[in-house]
Amino acid sequence: MEPSLLLGTGRLRHRRVETFPASQKARLLRSDDQPSVFTSVSEWADPASLHAWKASQGFQDGMGSARELCNEFIGGDFGVASAIDPG
Q1: What is the CATH number of the domain that holds 23?
Q2: pLDDT of residue 40
Q3: pTM of the full predicted structure?
Q4: How far apart are CA 18 and CA 16, in angstroms?
Q5: Contact of 28 with 40, CB cutoff 8 Å
Q6: CB of 49 within 8 A of CB of 72?
Q7: CA separation for the pair 64, 58 (Å, rounded)
Q8: Is residue 10 part of a domain?
Q9: What percentage of residues in the chain have a pLDDT greater than 70?
């Protein structure tokens, strides 16, 4: 897998997320130790908005492109177990 291709695909996906109603944040994280390892994290106003995004054509297209570039892909939905919000 070419990390720069996945990075470009991830940026496009995050631009699609940003324009979707009820999206709050989207981040594509890249490992400092293993530059070919990425984690995508997004925050949504509510579970229904997340489910609507995952049912959208934009999500399907973006995830299909990302999966094609990955040696391994693990997806899932996660809730916050702990957070630190300084300030």
Answers
A1: 3.30.70.100
A2: 80
A3: 0.63
A4: 5
A5: yes
A6: no
A7: 10
A8: yes
A9: 77
